[in-house]
Amino acid sequence: MKASPVHLVFRNEAFADHEQIVFCRDVESGLSAIIAIHDTTLGPALGGTRMWPYESEAAALRDVLRLSHGMTYKNALAGLPLGGGKAVIVGDPKRHKSPALFHAYGRYVDRLGGAYLTAEDVGVSVDDVVEVGTATAHVRGIPEGGAGDPSPHTAYGVYKGIVAAARHKHGSADLDGITVCVQGLGQVGMALAELLHEAGAGLVVADVRDAAVADAVERFGAEAVSPQEAHAADCDVFAPCALGAVLNERTIPELKARIVAGSANNQLERSADGERLLERGVLYAPDFVINAGGVICISHEGPDFDLEAMRKDVAAIGDTLATIFARSDAQGLATSVVADRMAEERLAEARNAAAAG
Ligand code: NAD
To answer: Is 97 a catalytic residue?
Structure first.
């Protein structure tokens, strides 16, 4: 029996009580998109638009629901006055992009009247978001009125997170003499490597791009390891800055690092991997907390943009992580579980305050 639309949406295992889900179709431009608004308790739902050649409608729906739910937690724990949302455009970013498609998409975003604020994500560039912005004002992370590329700020947040983790694990925030393995030397990873090098940390690096590895070896005296072995490198901190699902049943037993703290999204393959890390005595900085620098940067955009104030908020990621680590110790819970609970508590407080008038 085929699933009815009700089964596909309201009883979807990733539904998570979304407030609103909009299916968008524009025949002329070929647009098929889904906008998911998970929760607007804290403010308008902010989350990027992903373009991906999903194999089915069900796969696209599941992805957008999962990502949108994640944005609620990320924005809540970053202390932002923003809710969580996300959108997906079904299509191959190499073949199906056109100005008409992004204009049509922008018109749908506009109809939501600011309840959903969009930005770039996998398959959608800043230039594409600028195109969307010709049809709606509800775009973020574009050069005008903003801080530009958020990656250096994401890297700064990860750096502050590594410092907080080192302080918790070793009782000292000094990175001199600490070795960090950075997996992925892209926009975030390379900027992070630079900050770590300046702080006196030793570096082990891995990337599938040989030129990036050679650059880090030359600039920072880093040691190169193969991308497949990065997680098992002999180091104090493993910083995944490339792929998701790098922490799993196979890799966790091979970790030598006692701290995992990096920018990559969805680092845990399964939620049970958070407990696996706890059992192995590995201090894990939950990905959606430590990599919030970009979204914090975007939230500061506007005519009154203040770089110092934004950097201060990004640096506070270290304080949030210190609280998570302490609570994890006190309650014997995985840091990933503690982070989820703290986000839920912030949402509950805001709902109670709203109900109390
Ligand atoms: P990027 O595409 O610039 O860099 C990714 C790097 O990883 C590239 O250099 C790529 O060659 C390398 N890579 C790919 N496969 C690899 C492998 N198997 N082993 C080692 N290296 C590999 O991306 P980015 O903007 O630097 O983001 C890195 C991660 O951080 C992503 O997971 C992204 O979702 C996440 N993130 C980024 C930001 C941001 O502000 N850019 C914000 C939040 C989260």
So the answer is: no
